[in-house]
Here is the input.
Amino acid sequence: MIKRLTKNDIDLLQNSIDEKGAIIKSVINIEKFLSNENNYLIAYIENDKILGFVLAYTLQRYDGRAEMLYLHEIDVAETHRKQGIATKLMNELKEIKDKNGYDKIFLVTNKSNDAAISLYESMGGVTNSDDDIIFTFK
Here is the structure.
């Protein structure tokens, strides 16, 4: 089952900490995150356990152009990879994009992340250039 999680799903997240520890660091933080309608945490759930998830944010535009979805993270439990779960999660995110009129989904990944690149290309993702550079500031 695929489900967009809400603040009412905290128990499910807590029950999934051992399976996917990367999902939740703090119940307070995740509850705040899930309370924002512009944030998306979509989970693939089997037997009340989260086996995969995609995390995305709405990027609001100041210039009147359509909002975009920024895909921040997608992950599937190692024991359940290569079973189509990531594809199902991506398809759900595409449906959210279409339903809400978002212009597009965009993301950043590393050239060395072969699994991610393979997934994104298989889903119709394209790159506009091969020379993008990412800067971070702390």
